[in-house]
Amino acid sequence: MRGRGAKIAGVLPLFTLFMAGAISAFEDIERLRIWPLPAEVSHGGRRMYLSGDFKLVTEGSKYEDTTGILKEGFDRMLDVVRLSHVVSGGRNSSRSGGSALLQGLHVIISSSTDELEYGEDESYKLVVPSPEKPSYAHLEAKSVYGALHGLQTFSQLCHFNLKKKVIEILMTPWNITDQPRFSYRGLLIDTSRHYLPLPVIKNVIDSMTYAKLNVLHWHIVDTQSFPLEIPSYPKLWNGAYSSSQRYTFDDAAEIVNYAQRRGIHVLAEIDVPGHALSWGKGYPSLWPSKNCQEPLDVSSNFTFKVIDGILSDFSKIFKFKFVHLGGDEVNTTCWSATPRIAQWLKKHRMSEEEAYQYFVLRAQKIALSHGYETINWEETFNNFGSKLNPKTVVHNWLGTGVVERVTASGLRCIVSNQDKWYLDHIDAPWQGFYDNEPLQDIKDKKQQSLVLGGEVCMWGEHIDASDIEQTIWPRAAAAAERLWTPYAKLATNPDKVTTRLAHFRCLLNQRGVAAAPLVGGGRVVPLEPGSCLAQ
Amino acid sequence: MSPNLLLLLLLLLMFFSLSITSSLSSPSPADSPPYLWPLPAEFSFGNETLSVDPAVALIVAGHGGGSPIVRAAFERYMGMIFKHASGRASLLARIRFLRMVEYDITSLKIVVHSGSEELQLGVDESYTLMVSKKDEQSIVGAVTIEANTVYGALRGLETFSQLCAFDYLTQSVQIYKAPWYIQDKPRFQYRGLLIDTSRHYLPIDVIKQIIESMSFAKLNVLHWHIVDEQSFPLETPTYPNLWKGAYSRWERYTVEDASEIVRFAKMRGINVMPEVDVPGHAESWGTGYPDLWPSLSCREPLDVTKNFTFDVISGILADMRKIFPFELFHLGGDEVNTDCWKNTTHVKEWLQGRNFTTKDAYKYFVLRAQQIAISKNWTPVNWEETFSSFGKYLDPRTVVHNWLVSDICQKAVAKGFRCIFSNQGYWYLDHLDVPWDEVYNTEPLHGINETSHQKLVIGGEVCMWGETADTSVVLQTIWPRAAAAAERMWSTREAVSKGNITLTALPRLHYFRCLLNNRGVPAAPVDNFYARRPPSGPGSCYAQ
Q1: Catalytic option among B335, B384, B461, B487
Q2: How far apart are CA B228 and CA B285, in angstroms?
Q3: B83, B88, B90, B92 alpha-carbon torsion, rounded to 10°
Q4: Which of A373, B5, B162, B472 lies 20 to 30 Å from B204 when distance is taken between CA atoms?
């Protein structure tokens, strides 16, 4: 009996939301079950059915899709829509829908190119007609990547009709105009603390598209292991955990390609000089000494030659305009403790602190020489912000107030404050992820425009292939709405969106993503039997 | 620099890095023991390394060779074996191209003698697998799988895929320790995994992920505990209100969904055994048909007095017969608390009228349900309480399903019944405090010494009850412990019983868990005492 009482208590908050009588505009939006919420939505009350051979039509589109990005995106959309149940109802005849039958989706894209450019237009306009004006839904976008977002939204309008056993769209006609609030909506994965096999990374990328995230921040290397092949310095991946826990150069190119075809940038990171012990497994001279192995030896030109080699190789596969150079948590004790380096410091009249600055700035110059703009963790700004290259993007993680100071100094910023947006904090509840406002306390418009966006971080100390999905989801989705949806449309009380987020979590489950329950706070397992929608 | 000089330098570089890599302290397939899971019945190997052509050709022979099941499995396994980005641009691929080096293995021959694709209990799953370098004698190709049925061929393909490893230096797929000769067959014909879609709904895609992962460990029965007191997710055309007992409209299976699951499982050589657990675990039936409850305030077990109750069971079984071709049907029969029968006036009167105790009524219910199943050409499976309560009345064809008492199979087979072993102390996957070695060391034939009795133990099953396992954690609660039971049920008893399992099994299980991860299955760390816990810290998959 105790268990049963608890069950009802768990369900109650959701059902009260369901039953709330008078439908305000806000509650109407919450009933739409679209995540993240589009900028503008209007809908009617009619039902339409998807034809059994629902088609992609592109007449009038300037984009020729020679690379198949749109066609693949369309096919993926249909696949996930049909994943929930076997569609066995009348295939295409008028019997299953009559005039309410949607024949396909007409996609018109005005840009002919499919270069994935950071900050490009991701907007789209989606119209699903009512039964009086049947035949095709319409999707317009500037770029094919905006159209991909539109396809995601379309997939969330589709439901399975259990009687007719066909796909239906309720509440037509739909008019949706949408674009993201922030251009940088990231998720960090960490393949150094635990190796993540390729299919796992691909699954993460696919799940990101459902929540319209657009940057995979790949923290490739750290103290523990160096899994990536670097052709210029082929012994670096001797620092991998084992001969099989590695990514070939081609694997990395494949991940970038896989992500790009889904509109997702891959931000590669090498975290220098403080998180780089594993580099020395292949090249021990990168260590200050055998028994003092971190940070990288600042005194040796070879260190910077290796960084140059890595970034040169990176520039062949990581096409994103940014590269992440880390720069956090640098404990410089090894430098003064190693006589050779202590001597070098003395000769160059540098303190440890100045050597840290020297290292970061020299690494920045190397990155710039390969055409990258650099991102660094916030300690670099906190310690020598005025010396950073003006193209630097400062990546917040530690404190609050940093974003304000960074943008006041004219630099750009990405928000990842650890108290709210670190996914490895497994007791951090989804409400905190939803609530975390990147523009908190930033009133100046120009400063606001310097906040590129935010990122949730899935650090890998306790995360491997077995628990990554449920640690990321559904909490990353809460942040994704914060980053996508116009500020005015966001709920001031996160609990108001519980029903809609629970629905999105169940949608992820249906698509094979192991998103965890909402009830219980943080990353939890279900406490008892019950409906996905109520947990 | 001339191309030849460049080539030479590249080669030198490679050999240099080879010598470095061999010093890595990690398991490599080149080390012993052979990293196969479950361990084949008989095998021998050599000391050669063979490369496998990414464009390896499928050659089929025998009456069943042309089966679409074989072709589809071949395509699946090629996808798994060659999952790294093609090494076209890689160093060695270029060298190979320049030197026109041939791969050692360019074709895979699959011989299937029988043309029948019927999948039933006891289907022949044996196979032989030979891997050797091509020479004048073996014009048939370098790899041959020979089996009596397509399902044996599937098991052989799984073993073949476990011999293949991606080599990061040459960036090609290699088979170490060739030539291989493997002759294999399962110890038990029934190797099951239970899933529970009543306590938590599992989406179709998730059930498919589970089925796919079962095939990697050579499990062959998915016991689908579809319905229980919490929810009734399956469509039953004859009684269309039954699935009103689902948690929600979104948490349901149509008839076509269920058929698709059966089809998907069959393509992987896995039978689906459905269960309706009567009369004790059926409260959700009454959401659609309240007459099935003894009363509105006392809802379980099902009302034993009404013919309607048995009409509904008959209707469900008739509908399910069209979906599930497997010969076994599970009727549950466990944990029947008959208080509601005693406390409901009309049921109490009915009992008095027939001079029934509640226990008599329980027996009456189970036996009547058995006859319905038998009339539909099904062999009934029942949980062990039915045997311990009124064993001598059970239909002699009954398969007794153990869960509660450790020696129940011993008793059941002594009475001539067949038995499935699922001792809850070790093989209930929802018990999180049972580490892999306890699962592994649990022997279904323990205490059963007569050969004729041993034969009646058709196998065992690990049970993934769903109270605290939904989509978000089901796979990591199943794996890797289900694999420990899978080897117990597949490999020879000698192989799994002798020696120190920390040496004979643990390194292979580590390897298999990482293989599952590499195939996208979120198998949890092996070494944690509690199941499905996260890794304790940074580290190699092979060491956690």
Answers
A1: B335
A2: 8
A3: 100
A4: B162
DSSP string, A64-131: --TT-HHHHHHHHHHHHHTTSS---S--SSHHHHGGGEEEEEEEEE--------TT----EEEEE--T
ipTM: 0.91
Cβ-count burial B361-394 (b if 16+ within 10 Å, e if not): bbbbbbbebbebbeeeebbbbbbbbbbeebbeeb
Is B27 touching A (CB cutoff 8 A)?
Answer: yes
Query: What is the average pLDDT across A285-314?
Result: 97
Selected residues 226-245 of chain B with any CB under 8 Å from a CB in chain A: 230-231, 235
At A175-198, the pLDDT tens digits run 999 999 999 999 999 999 999 999
Q: How many helices (H) and strands (E) does chain B have?
A: 21, 16
Mind listing the pLDDT tens digit for each residue in A435-473?
A: 999 999 999 999 999 999 999 999 999 999 999 999 999
Measure in Å the smallest separation between the Cα of A446 and chain B Cα atoms: 42
Which residues, listed in sequence order, are joined to residue B172 by a DSSP beta bridge?
B167
SS (H, E, C) B470-537: CCCCHHHHHCCHHHHHHHHHHCCHHHHHCCCHHHHCHHHHHHHHHHHHHCCCCCCCCCCCCCCCCCCC
Neighbour-count burial of B37, counting CB atoms closer than 10 A to its CB (0-12 exposed, 13-18 middle, 19+ buried)? buried
Mark the ranges of chain B whose per-residue pLDDT is less than 70.
Answer: 1-33, 85-101, 135-141
Cα B175 to Cα B197: distance, rounded to the nearest angstrom: 40
pLDDT band, very low/low/confident/very high, at A114 (cuts 50, 70, 90): very high
Say whether A229 and B168 touch across the interface (CB within 8 A): yes
Task: Copy the structure tokens of residue A414.
Answer: 């990405």
- Check if B275 is active-site: no
Beta bridge partners of B421: B460
- From CA B407, how far away is CA B444, in angstroms rounded? 10
At B498 the pLDDT is 85
Structure tokens at B180: 């291989």
Check residues B171 and A510 and name the one with the higher pLDDT.
Answer: A510
Closest CA of chain B from A407, distance in Å: 35
